[in-house]
């Protein structure tokens, strides 16, 4: 009896499609032809400047891409090329304001960076003093303290709200979800006015960092709750069923299975909540007092913050004060970009898992 050998070959995974060198050259030719046509049309007409050139470039790029695709591969390819070019142009238009903000902030803010910026406060300096004197240490510490207190208040409330909406699904789920969505659209100054009218005037009668943290927590709760709700909805029901099958109660399953599985997403919700309130100015102006000296006690005396430091610097209007304001804005922008980068990194890590 002869033995038959069966060869087992493992199929190679297919690689994603990549354009060839010829296709890349054709795409580049579309852009070159559109640029030449737009520059020539602007030169032959009374319309001058960058804006008409950019508008004509977009029009010619769409037309040339459509004609090229139609004559080479049919009308479907032509329409696909035109839509792809429109999407690319729309993305570029959307990125222009962001690039402009970054360029303006960096070009004007770096002039206010000096060695004492992060080690000194403004208690012994005025707006007309040289830019090398004073700093924003009080603003950095104040923002960190107020945001930390707000996070301690908002994080458990936001996560518990998300758990109630996704796991409990009680009779009040619909009004609670509506309230959370409504709070997301509330102007930030309303939070400051609420703290002022409900706590400061009738109870404490003092402006301090704790009042600012309470106002920020009101703005942070809906962001954390909505993000955490979306994260918990992504957890497979198989994990919940496995926890119940092992004899766990609903709360034990949520605490020991669901929440640990969504840990990275919940951390992302926390970071997005911080990024949401770190730059809020209106509630801080109303309730924190906005001091110029370092104050690490949130319940005694006014407390400065980065938004208040920026607002006050621009309010004085002198050249030195304006430079300080741009420097504070640059520091705040870098901090927010770091937070969003951390959130994106954690979300990608969660998807890979």
Structure description:
- This protein is mostly helical and 353 residues long.
- Helix content is 73%, strand content 0%.
- The chain is flat, with a radius of gyration of 28 Å.
CA distance, first residue to last residue: 50 Å
Order of helices and strands: HHHHHHHHHHHHH
- Low-confidence segments: none
Strand content of the residues, in percent? under 5%
**Structural category:** mainly alpha
According to DSSP, the number of beta strands is 0
Could you give a short account of the major beta sheet? none
Shape: flat
CATH architecture of the largest domain: Orthogonal Bundle
Number of domains: 2
CATH topology of the largest domain: MetI-like fold
The share of residues in helices is over 70%
CATH class of the largest domain: Mainly Alpha
Question: What would CATH call the homologous superfamily of the largest domain?
Answer: MetI-like
What is the radius of gyration? 28 Å
Mean model confidence by pLDDT: 86
């Amino acid at each position: 009896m002869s033995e038959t050998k069966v060869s087992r070959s493992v199929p190679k995974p297919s690689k994603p499609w990549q354009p060839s060198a010829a296709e890349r050259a054709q795409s580049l030719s579309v852009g070159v032809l559109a640029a030449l046509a737009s520059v020539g049309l602007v030169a032959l007409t009374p319309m001058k400047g960058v804006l008409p050139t950019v508008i004509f470039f977009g029009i010619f790029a769409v037309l040339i891409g459509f004609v090229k695709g139609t004559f080479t591969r049919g009308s479907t390819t032509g329409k696909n090329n035109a839509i792809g070019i429109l999407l690319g142009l729309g993305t570029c238009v959307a990125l222009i304001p962001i690039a402009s903000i970054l360029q303006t902030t960096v070009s004007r803010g770096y002039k206010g960076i000096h060695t004492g910026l992060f080690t000194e406060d403004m208690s012994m300096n005025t707006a007309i003093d040289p830019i090398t004197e004073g700093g924003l240490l009080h603003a950095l510490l104040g923002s960190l303290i107020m945001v930390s207190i707000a996070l301690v208040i908002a994080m458990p409330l936001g996560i518990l709200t998300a758990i109630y909406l996704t796991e409990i699904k009680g009779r009040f789920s619909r009004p609670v979800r509506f309230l959370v969505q409504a709070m997301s659209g509330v102007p930030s100054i309303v939070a400051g006015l609420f703290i002022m009218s409900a706590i400061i005037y009738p109870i404490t009668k003092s402006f301090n960092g704790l009042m600012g943290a309470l106002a920020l927590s009101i703005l942070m709760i809906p962001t954390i709750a909505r993000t955490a709700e979306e994260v918990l909805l992504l957890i497979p029901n198989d994990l919940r069923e496995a926890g119940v099958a092992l004899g766990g109660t609903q709360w034990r399953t949520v605490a020991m299975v669901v929440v640990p599985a969504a840990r990275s997403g919940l951390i992302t919700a926390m970071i997005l909540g911080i990024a949401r309130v770190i730059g809020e100015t209106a509630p801080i102006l109303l309730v924190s007092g906005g001091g110029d000296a370092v104050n690490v006690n949130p319940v005694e005396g006014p407390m400065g913050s980065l938004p208040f430091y920026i607002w006050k610097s621009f309010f004085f209007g002198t050249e030195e004060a304006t430079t300080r304001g741009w420097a504070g804005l640059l520091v705040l922008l870098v901090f927010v970009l770091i937070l969003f980068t951390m959130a994106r990194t954690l979300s990608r890590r969660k998807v890979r898992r």
